[in-house]
Amino acid sequence: MASIVYVNGSNGTIYAYKNISYWDKQTKTTKHKRECIGHVDTITGEVVPNRKKEKEGTSSKPKRFCDVKGIGVSLLLEHVADEIGLTRILSSVFHNDWRQIMTCAYYLVSEGNALSRVESWSAANNVAARAKCPRREL
Question: Of 6, 35, 39, whose CA–CA distance to 21 is shortest?
Answer without folding.
Answer: 35
